[in-house]
């Protein structure tokens, strides 16, 4: 199998090399030249545990690493870091199902991939005879940062540098990053938004030319981060089949809260690999850049970014959409180059209607503002005693009966907004808000969050967005 760039399909590398590079030299994203089939039988869906299912799917997408090596990456990466050996939970709430992806060490769905990625990088280095240090550059809108830091902390042969918008993450998310220990980790806030951080990291990849280290990424632009996310779509299908909610071959729809389009693109990949998926519903918050794209065919970032109660979705440049457009356009790399150049220079691009027709054949779309998400949080708690976070609430608002809604974070990470939705008084401190939420719901603060308040702040750097490349150079 080869991975090719979305901006030049004649630029190709092996799967392990795609993991190490993160971003193609031309700025494009790596995608499989041909998407493999999962070839899962009904018995596979019913009998495979999460780790084995993930290992087999990763082997399909990253075959040069070898199945035994991938099994080790998965088992060592997940280990005993999760609430249970099955990693995720599928809960039926009324007519919908909620796929809880936040039972890992940082209480966010990013753990499902970022516990495994450091091991995939180490294995890729060994396979390619690479002895240089790997430096991970990552921009985060909240959850990726902590999950990546936790995954790479003190991993030999690596260093990680995370950038986040100073005023664009929740207080708990910020505390998670600022308290991260590790001799190889750096955390820096920027005066700007997530798109500024993401753009700065991409420029750093382009501007830093060195043979002394390998520059790679933990964002979903890296296929080693994206590929593990495919597994939980298959796993959800297996659990529905096991419970008799569906018959083998029945199609299932998924509703996904997304800003950078990585999580839902993993669902699209799952469908191309053979998972019976009816619809993928793209749920946006008040920053409707993806909703407007699906409605009009024009992707337009020329708008003011709105800071919402679902900060991980406060994004105007959805990087992974480039991958979908590449495939939907028939792998037209010339069109993708032109579109991405237009997005960078003019702030928008338009996709031809025939390409949009292919995209809309798989995707639905919708959006919900903070008010609507709050109503969903309150109604699900009052009617079912089911507690969800703000991002999941956006997805639930856009979902349909019988959908599987991807639940992406613990509600305690966004306790102030949850308390407000439930009509409770909101303490000024994010830590006090977690305690208040535990009292009013009778649920326990996750162990990974409960001890944050007592940890020392280790990372206090704040820079202007134009200093990202300089900051990286100083640390490598």
Secondary structure topology:
Blueprint: E1 3-5, E2 8-13, H1 15-21, E3 30-32, H2 42-47, H3 50-61, H4 67-78, E4 89-93, E5 96-100, H5 111-114, H6 117-127, E6 133-139, H7 143-152, E7 158-165, H8 171-178, E8 185-191, H9 194-207, E9 213-217, H10 223-226, H11 231-242, E10 252-257, H12 262-272, E11 277-284, H13 289-296, E12 298-300, H14 321-328, H15 333-346, E13 348-350, H16 353-360, E14 363-367, H17 370-384, H18 390-398, E15 404-407, H19 415-421, H20 430-441, H21 447-450, E16 461-464, H22 468-475
Helix pairs in contact: 1-6, 3-4, 3-11, 4-6, 9-22, 17-18, 17-19, 19-20
Radius of gyration: 21 Å
Structural class: alpha/beta
CATH class of one domain: Alpha Beta
The poorly predicted ranges are none
For the biggest sheet, the summary is:
6 strands, mixed
Helix run count: 22
Task: Give the amount of beta strand, in percent.
Answer: 15-25%
**Whole-Å distance between the termini?**
32 Å
Provide a descriptive summary of the structure in words.
It is built from 22 helices and 16 strands. Helix 3 crosses helix 11, helix 9 crosses helix 22 (468-475) and helix 19 packs across helix 20. The radius of gyration is 21 Å and the shape is globular. The protein has 476 residues and is α/β, with parallel strands linked by helices. Helices cover 43% and strands 17% of the residues. The chain has a domain at 89-107 and 226-407: Rossmann fold (3-Layer(aba) Sandwich), CATH 3.40.50.1100. It starts with a strand and ends with a helix. The strands form 4 sheets. Strands 4-5-15-10-11-14 form a 6-stranded mixed sheet, sandwiched between helices. Strands 9-6-7-8-16 form a 5-stranded parallel sheet, with helices on both faces. It has a 3-stranded antiparallel sheet with strand order 2-1-3.
């Amino acid at each position: 199998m080869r991975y090719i760039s979305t901006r030049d399909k004649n630029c190709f590398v092996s799967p392990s090399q795609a993991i190490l590079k993160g971003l193609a030299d031309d700025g494009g994203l790596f995608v499989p030249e041909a998407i493999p089939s999962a070839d899962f039988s009904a018995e596979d869906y019913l009998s495979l545990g999460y780790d084995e299912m993930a290992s087999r799917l990763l082997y399909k997408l990253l075959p040069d690493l070898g199945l035994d090596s991938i099994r080790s990456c998965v088992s060592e990466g997940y280990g005993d870091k999760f609430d249970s050996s099955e990693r995720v939970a599928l809960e039926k709430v009324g007519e919908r199902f909620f796929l809880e992806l936040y039972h890992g060490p940082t209480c966010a769905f990013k753990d499902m991939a970022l516990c495994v990625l450091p091991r995939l990088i180490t294995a890729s280095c060994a396979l390619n005879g690479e002895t240089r240090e790997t430096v991970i550059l990552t921009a985060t809108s909240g959850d990726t940062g902590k999950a990546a830091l936790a995954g790479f902390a003190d991993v030999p042969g690596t260093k990680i540098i995370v950038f986040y918008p100073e005023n664009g993450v929740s207080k708990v998310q910020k505390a998670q990053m600022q308290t991260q220990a590790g001799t190889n980790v750096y955390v820096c806030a920027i005066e700007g938004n997530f798109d500024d951080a993401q753009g700065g990291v991409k420029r750093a990849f382009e501007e830093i030319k060195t043979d002394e280290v390998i520059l790679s990424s933990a964002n979903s632009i890296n296929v080693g981060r994206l590929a593990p996310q495919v597994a939980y779509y298959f796993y959800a299908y297996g659990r529905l089949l096991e419970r008799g909610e569906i018959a083998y071959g029945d199609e299932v729809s998924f509703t996904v809260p997304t800003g950078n389009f990585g999580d839902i693109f993993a669902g699209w990949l799952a469908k191309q690999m053979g998972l019976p998926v009816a619809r993928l519903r793209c749920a946006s918050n008040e920053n409707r850049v993806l909703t407007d794209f699906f409605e009009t065919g024009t992707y337009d970032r020329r708008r003011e970014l709105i800071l919402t109660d679902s900060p991980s979705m406060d994004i105007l440049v959805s990087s992974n959409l480039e991958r979908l457009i590449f495939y939907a356009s028939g792998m037209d790399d010339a069109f993708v180059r032109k579109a991405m150049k237009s997005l960078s220079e003019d702030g928008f691009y338009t996709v031809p209607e025939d390409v949009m027709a292919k995209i809309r054949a798989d995707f639905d779309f919708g959006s919900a503002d903070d008010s609507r998400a709050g109503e969903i949080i309150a109604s699900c708690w009052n009617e079912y005693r089911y507690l969800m976070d703000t991002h999941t609430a956006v997805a639930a608002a856009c979902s349909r009966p019988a959908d599987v809604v991807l639940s992406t974070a613990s509600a305690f990470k966004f306790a102030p907004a949850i308390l407000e939705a439930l009509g409770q008084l909101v303490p000024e401190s994010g830590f006090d808000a977690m305690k208040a939420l535990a009292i009013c719901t009778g649920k326990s603060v996750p162990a990974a969050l409960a001890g944050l308040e007592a940890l020392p702040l280790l990372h206090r750097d704040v820079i202007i967005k134009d200093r990202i490349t300089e900051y990286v150079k100083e640390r490598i």
